[in-house]
Amino acid sequence: MSLLTVEGLQVHFGHEGNQVQALYDVDLTIEPGEIVGLVGESGSGKTVTSLALMGLLDPRSSRIEGRAVLDGKSLWQGKGERAVPRRDLPMAMIFQEPMTALDPVFTVGYQLVETLRVRRGMGKSQAKTESLSLLDAVGISDPKARMKAYPHELSGGMRQRVMIAIALACDPKLLIADEPTTAVDVTIQAQLLDLIKKLAKERGMAVLFVTHDLGVVSETCDRMITMYAGRIVERGPVAEVLADPGHPYTAGLLAALPSPGSRGGRLATIPGRVPPPGLTIPGCVFESRCPYAAPECSVPQALLPLTPTREVRCIRSNELDFEGVAP
Amino acid sequence: MTGPLLSLENVSVRFPIGRRRHVTAVDGVSLDLLEGETLGLIGESGSGKSTVARAAMGLVPIADGTVRWRGEDVAGFGAKQRRTFSESVQMVFQDPHSALDPRRTILQSVREPLDVMGRGDKKDREAVAAKALEDVGLPSQMLKRYPHQLSGGQKQRANIARALVTDPKVLVCDESVAALDVALQAEILNLLQDLKKAYELTILFISHDLSVVSYLADRISVMYLGNIVENATTESLVQQSLHPYSEALLSAQPLVHDSSAGRRIVLKGDIPSPVSPPPGCRFNTRCQFAQEGCRQEKPELLEILPGHSSACLRVDELYGERIGRTVAS
Q: Which residue in B57, B45, B30, B49 sits closest to B205, CA to CA?
């Protein structure tokens, strides 16, 4: 059985009469120890998906529908309007900007100890010992001294390691990482990616890795999901999808990447932009930007199997041959 | 052959950090920007890339060295020459949103440099600004809008237009595509290439993203902790890097079609603080090849191959094969 099963996840924002839908029928599963990449441009629904799963969307301005089960337990308690996210599940999240996610007026040690005491019910001294071993586990040198440091005294890479340590404090089976390496340098990114991979392997922790960087996906993830306009448009094993994308959008993202090989030439672009949430699109959501749009694309597309392991929301996937994406 | 358009000779920039102490953000950097080329400047945050650009434009006072514009020392410029110089070197910043005044329309923002220069009357200035906005591909209905009504890509186009209205020779792009999505990034990179041709620009392109720099630049300078550690043409740097730092930087770049397993060199730790840089080679604290000598002697930037210089004491030992092979072929 999968660790996380999500079925028909829908998110609406706004109040009666003025609602926009941000997510449409998102289904996904994650196995223990698996790293799943969630990719797409800004506005494609990656972050809304992760916030909805984590229970961080404001219930006053958003409405979540669908079913999500982590390790046999539903992510929401209660039914319908009165459903509230559960806070006692073994899942944690790390964010893009560790400086804004950490509290600037408390030391790193205090924030770690607090999490351990609340979530694991530890005593003060036990929590302190555990904090030290967590900081050690995320590769922070001299954890004792770092416990007394305030977030501003640490570098970006160190802060993100501290965030990961806090996330590990509740011994998560699922880690949601929302663009965790976007704000750091490549050399630090390499360190953090190695760390996340190592933790996933050692602890059997599953990771939902939200990123817009296909290079990072290629190096870190086992499977990937491409999202567009609040819908999943493609998913499958990373190596297969990147070598031969099935959806024109995934192909477009790949072709837009600059490389030394494409020097001097023009980069492929995806004309137009992601439709704003709330816009009703009668046919295929990508039709208006798709260079391969044909008459048959004017009907809504379903997520159909391409191979036993891959699914694509494109009716023409089999007949298309994409340019500029080959290795 | 004419000399470089803009050149930095041994430029150092120091910032006071209280108690009469200083931090040397840029330490004896020399750079030549040749007319018509695109020079890429890469390095981690804290390496001094942006400070170099600011020093070149005269936005920060330099402590040592000279900045030359067409061979003349910028420091000796009178008010008039100074003005021509600032018109000729324009900058595009990283965050397209914070670089625009939220209370001005796009047209007003783009027109502003011309207002400051007092060129022509208002109508002419508006026409020049509108032309620049057209060149960067912003539809005319956008001119009267405010920054918050535009998307990130459109805002960056407006920023580029504002840099272009003074008819500059040099465009300094400081992480100009870092805040954009891949598809938009591709659009802006294409646009920069087009504008470079149309306006006969010379571009100094600063980025931490090696794939962007190697796509755009003719030559690349790699910076580390206030020093330039390697200078080379893009091909030469990508194919045969001659400095351990550049190698690590190249290998850390996640690529889609080339698994990094095996090739990746993961550097330990962070870039040291420039307040107290390590003695000797500044990279010695993170370099896997560092030896005793590297902690004592500071390597100079020496030309190893034609057009390819590196600042590493052990360059012969480490890359002898690469150098030998290239010399022989």
A: B49
